[in-house]
Sequence to fold (345 residues):
Amino acid sequence: MISFESRDIFFAHRGKRAVFVRFVKITYLCVWKKRPMAKGMRYNDFSTFLSKEFSYKVQKISVNAGFTCPNRDGTKGFGGCTYCNNQTFNPAYCHVEKSIARQLEDGKAFFSRKYPQMHYLAYFQAYTNTYAEVDKLRQMYEEALSVDGIEGIIIGTRPDCVSDELLDYLAELNRKTFLLVEYGIESASDKTLQMINRGHTFACTKDAFKRTKEHGIRAGGHVILGLPGEDHEELMRQTKQISELPLVTLKLHQLQLIKGTRMALEYKQNPEMFHLYAADEYVETVIDYLERLRPDIVLERFVSQSPKELLIAPDWGMKNYEFTERLKRRLEERDTWQGKYYEGN
Fold:
C-alpha cells in the first residue's frame, strides 16, 4: 500500500522568475510477500517450531510447584491480577501436595494412554514460577528434568520476577536442555496494567525481555485481547510494541470473565466497561492483529478455554482446535497472513 502527501513551496530569488516546486512525500506500508513460515501455513505455528527443536513429538505437562505472586502476598499488592483464577488451568493430575516428579509421572500416565511414544516438556504454569530463591528454583527445575522422558522445561513467570542471578543460572540450564521462559505481558498499556493490578509497568516487561535475550535464553509472551479500555485501535497499536520485544513465541487469548475473580465483580457492577467478543468478531480481531505482527514470531495459541463451571462469559461453545480451524479458513478467505502489514525493519 502506498500513500502520498504533497505540498507546494513558492521560491523567488533576487527578482528572477518565481518557481513553484512540488515536493511529494511517498509513504510505503510494507506488504510482506515472502512468508517465513511452514509451507501452506499463514502464521508461524508452535507445532512446526517444536518439530525444528526435536526429532520426536513432545507434549507439555503442567506442574503446580506451590508458588504465589508478588501482587498476591503483599509485596506489590493483594488479590492478584483482577482476571486471574488459577483453577482455570490446573489439570486434574496437577496438585500442589504432590511432588514435582509425582505430578509429572501422573501427567505422563494421563497422556501415554493415547500417545505412548510421546516425550514431554515440564511446564511450570501456575502463578509466578521464578518467585523464590535461586537455590530453591534450581532444585525444583532439576527435579523436573530428572524425570524420565522430560526433555526440557517451560517456565511461566512475571517480568518483575527475574533477577540477573536467576538468568545466569537459566543460561547454564539452557546450554543443557530445551528452555523457554514465558512472560505474562497481558498489555502494553501502563494504564491497563495498573487497572488489572499487575504491579509492574511495560518498561519492566521490555527490560525483562532484553536481559533474557542477552543471556541467550528463548523468551515467550502472553497477551490478553479485550481488556477493559483497550479497543481495536489500541490493540493494533499494541502489535508494534509487542513486535519490538525480542520474543520467540506468543500466546493470545480473549478476555474471559471467571467466577471468583475481582474482574467478575467489576463486570457485575459496571458491565458497560467491558466488550466481550463474539467468536466471529474475535476471529477478525486476531487476524487484524496477526497482519501487523512481526512475521517470525511463533504463535502458540489464540484462545483460552476455561472450565464451564468457572466461566461466566463469553461462552462460544467450541474447542480450541475448532477455533483455530475457523481462523485458518478465514485467513484463506481474506488471503492474508502474519506480518502482511508489519511495519518493522
Notes: Residues 176 and 325 are 36 Å apart (CA to CA). Residues 320-334 form the longest helix (15 residues).
